[in-house]
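Exercise 7.
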Amino acid sequence: MQAAAPKYRRVLLKISGEAFSGTETGVDVHTTEDMARQIAEVHRDGVSVAVVVGGGNIWRGKVHEEAGMDRATADYMGMLATVINALALQDALESAGVVTRVLSAISMHQVAEPYIRRRAIRHLEKGRVVIFAAGTGNPYFTTDTAAALRAVEIGADAILKATQVDGVYSADPKKDPTAVRFESLEYIEVLKRGLEVMDNTALALCMDNGLPIVVFELMRRGNIKKAIWGEPIGTIVRKAESSATPTV
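Solution. The predicted structure, written as tokens, is:
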């Protein structure tokens, strides 16, 4: 039975660029609309929602870096890709009746507001969904780090890390049939095991600020709400309340 009130009142939802592509490349309209419906549902229930989007469906900087492209240039191009995804999600959310603002860490006044922390918080206080685009605005930092940074800045209660799998596993479940899913993990345990939750910079920032990370499957409809209401889905990474516990 679902709790009467959400466990988290303000969340930072991290969505990868790949989530926007569905089974295609670029931005899939139906997939984006489905994400928007899930966000709109929790927004109507009074949850304050901010979103950080990736850009991997449009630009994979690492591939081009390996081919010899300058790292900073590749990263800036990736930041621009996140703006495209942010605008697509904004359009889908506003079609669902949710007032939305895109704040970009790279100035582009014709399409997005510049990121200003106080402005972002004010938008959230007014009941708007805020989408943070262009990462941190700096090369050499991932959108995971941007998500952790923005979550701390806006006073989020948790980061919701939306993925294509239903949590954090001891190994790649597609390659290792013996892999088990963890229900909960300590930050330090994630670092020691080298588990793929967020990059180490992002994880350290969450650990320093006691910010829990809920890793869950995005495209299973209703999961965003379940994660916010504290239902036992996916994997939660948090302070040492209990030891890492794999599912049986």
